What does this fold into?
Amino acid sequence: MIVKYVTVDLLKKLNDSAIKNKRNRAISDEYMETLLKRTEKDIKFPIAASFPHNHDLERRCKIITDGDKNESVYLDIDLLDWDKLPKAVL
It folds into this structure.
């Protein structure tokens, strides 16, 4: 199984883009700050689900931020960025 994922730095970059482009789903500043403080720099957040959104111009993604606590966020990602996301083989 192949899973796309985001790193901490990539998540911040994608979230900044979502906010700048006024996408419907972005991560709040408060949660992002908490996430940056508590997360190791090299951690990978898997994308658990995604589907086309906004006339297929972006993908709405469910990103697992803490599997032990069952925490996740939704983020709208531009298709060009989506295509470039790293993948892991499980």
